[in-house]
Every structure is written in structure tokens, then in C-alpha cells.
Amino acid sequence: MWIYQKTLQHPVKVGHTDLAFANRLLSMYGGPDGELAAALRYLNQRYTMPTNNTKGLLTDIGTEEMGHVEMIATMIYKLTKDADLDEVRESMFGNYFVDHGKALYFCDANGAPFTVTYFQAKDDPIADLTENMAAEQKARATYNHLMELTDDPDLLDTLRFLRQREIVHFQRFGEALDQVQEYFACKKVF
Asked: Which residues of 22-31 are buried (b: 16+ CB within 10 A; e: fewer)?
């Protein structure tokens, strides 16, 4: 079903080691509004979509979100890989380091592990698409918050790219919602 390309969707560069920012990025890695939650939500919800077009859309966006997981993981790795133990001890990243070292682990910025309770599936395409639109807006807002917390131009470039994709996904889900509502109106289901 998938073909993996060994290139990121957008180049990921970082200006320097930044453990505090890496810790903050964990929110988009394994947090409630993060990329993993989005990918799993959409890939799961696609099965109850009423049209091939909406199934395809959720598959496409879910797959793209997996690529975003990879980008976030790459940023976290690059921000932490050259840190020495003194830097780790003095940073917010120290608590994470105790359990995971510099390995990637799906959790939020506070260390809470990823859980599927971050998203829902209702067997109601209108409810699911509406949730997806809200999820994209929450992710966009989180990227805005992250962008306020760094002045690294390389990080900002990648964060802007990811934020823009959230906006595009929101628009696509809005189009899908219109299609689903039209589909149900023709079938006189709702």
C-alpha cells in the first residue's frame, strides 16, 4: 500500500543543540495534538467513510502525517544528539533522559506517554471529519506556540512548513465534510 521514500517531505535542519526545544517538540511527536495521533486517527477513520474519495483523502492525509512524525523525530534527534551530560543535567530534557536517554519515545512535553485516548472514532463521518478539522486547528495552534519559543531560522523554516500543511489539511477535511453531507442528503440518511 505504501512506498517509502528515504527523503523527508521537507528538509530538516537545526542551528544548534537545544534540549529545551527538543523537549517542547515532544508535544508534536507523541502529544494529544501531535502528528502520531493525527496519523492514527485518519488511518483508522477511513474505514467508515462513505465514499472512495473520502476514504482516499483520509489515507493520503494519514500517510502524510506519518511523514510529519518522521520530520519531528528528526528535529528532536538533531537537537539532542550532540548534547553532553552537563547540558542534559541542566535542562528540562533531563527528566526525559532518565527513562529514555536520547532515544525517541512517544510522549508529550510533560513526559506523559502517547495514548489512543487522544482521538475518537464514532462511525459517524460527519462527527469524525469535524473532529479532524478541530485536530488540524489545534496542531496549527501548537506549531504557532512552538514558533514563538525559538529564534532558530532553520527550525522556524520546518515549523512553518508543518503549520502550513495543517492549514491545507483543515481545508481538505472541510471539502470532504461538504461531500459527505451532500452524499447523505442524496441518500436521505441524516
From this structure: bbbbbbbbbb
pLDDT at 172: 98
Question: Contact at 8 Å (CB) between 17 and 87?
Answer: yes
- Model pTM? 0.94
Nearest to 82, CA basis, from 164, 19, 6: 19
How far is Cα 134 from Cα 118, in angstroms, rounded to an integer?
13
Backbone angles phi, psi at 108, to 5 degrees: -95, -175
C-alpha cell at 164: 502550513
Please check whether residue 42 is in contact with residue 103, taking contact to mean a CB–CB distance below 8 angstroms.
no
Query: Structural domains in the chain?
Result: 19-187 (1.20.1260.10)
